[in-house]
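Q: Start with the shorter request: fold the first protein.
A: Done. Sequence, then structure:
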Amino acid sequence: MDFILLLKALILGVVEGMTEFLPISSTGHLILIGSLLDFNDERGKVFTIAIQFGAILAVCWEYRSKVIQVISGVGRDATSNQFVMNLMIAFLPAAILGFFFIKIIKDHLFHPTPIAIALIVGGLLILWAERREHVIEVESIDDMDWKHALKVGCAQCLALIPGTSRSGATIIGGLFFGLSRKTAAEFSFFLAIPTMFAATVYDVYKNREFLEWSDFSMFAVGFVAAFISALIAVRGLVRFVSNHDFTIFAWYRIVFGVVILFTAYGGVIEWSKV
């Protein structure tokens, strides 16, 4: 196996894990970094899809006690039943829209300029959200009802636009709808499990002809890198939001988006279309 290819797999795995659960858009980063690494062919695309399993597993591992508690309590415990129902309700809006419109979105929006614009607009929305008076109605994910879940699920639909950020849409949406910072972040993590799992399985199945046993080591490196970096990111974000707001992520998005536009239109970097 080519050492350079494994290095690319390692870099993309770290990028996936570190950005998946931060409000800065993992899809946008993977597309752009893949462009810089010249790894945006069909093989590279299915790779960036498949390594999301590593990030999903990181959340399952970090919250394994809650996951086991919910699974063992389904059908017997009211809190577990409500939690599962909330996840299902929040999952459905983006799943339905994605099923019907994802091809159109990929054909027209998976390019540097739309990603940069989405990064900048998302950053401005975060700044606006942080300047609003934040009225907390829900202090724990177990206190959420189906209406909170539906609102967060509708917010997640915005993440179908590359550069928006699934975690950013759900976390900031949660803040708008009365969730505490910690609750919004944690519900976003749990919502990622069915959402990312369904999207990843669907995309991998559609692109299964590009999967080859000879690439196993490449996928293994990316998977492990995504798992470890996602675990670090999840733990770090939960600690961070306990004492800080999301302003730093907003400015990062804005600066990153401006850099993309400047380098693309200034000819500094020839971003590939993907």
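Q: Next, the second protein, separately.
A: Sequence, then structure:
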Amino acid sequence: MNKSLSRKLVDKPYIVWSVLFIIAPLIMVFYYAFTDSTSAFSLASIKAIPAYTSTILLSIIYGVIASAVCLIIGYPFAYLLTKTKLSTQSMMVLLVMLPMWMNFLIRTYSWMTILGDSGIINTVLSALGLGSVKLINTGGAVILGMVYNFLPYMILPIYNVISKMDNSLIEAAQDLGSTKAQILRKVIMPLSLPGVISGITMVFVPCVSTFYITQKLGGGQVVLIGDIIETQFQSANNYHLGASLSLVLMVLIILCLGIMNFLGADEDSEGGVII
């Protein structure tokens, strides 16, 4: 009886938090998406969504590119990290997590200083007589900002999975005469897929929905779905269109999570190791 009462008391704050910060905002998004300025039911904002198809597709493309770059950088780093001493691993994990403890705006502003026309890179290039290069306000700068800000979300889940991998499987592969490349390709990589899937999800979702990175590093040259939503809410005061586009973003995120969960469940059911 006491345990049941204690559990209810512990659960109540989470229920209140969920209602205030998850359910209530979702209700407001649906309300504004399916009403007009007179609060009457309307599909006008929903019908306006096709006009932003190119922006939605561009957001997906940028999310895929940033996720791919994070995977290419993050997987080898996470794998090599597991091969170091435990004390070194702890220090390196701390360094990976360190940027996450800093304010997101400060991290983005730092890249504005580095990539600017009068920034650190161009100052060095000019001093060497190589001339300046257009780095800021480009698609490459946006991708760089995404990778820098969200790379830890790729490294940490992959590192966590590989570090907890059963070494007996690797030893068995070695006893059977497998080379290091074969062990990596047929044992380690299949078993680490849950971490890869988790990392891709954690990188892709914020990349698709971001707007501050595109504004500061893209300079208005790259406009993603997050920028449109932010503009509708902050500048245009068109909450109805902003809510409708937010629904599109929610659908994209749910589809992404569903696909990743399906792939993760499928991988778990197959056992992971490739024979």
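Q: Describe the second briefly.
A: Residues 269-275 have pLDDT under 50 and may be disordered. Residues 122 and 132 are 5 Å apart (CA to CA).
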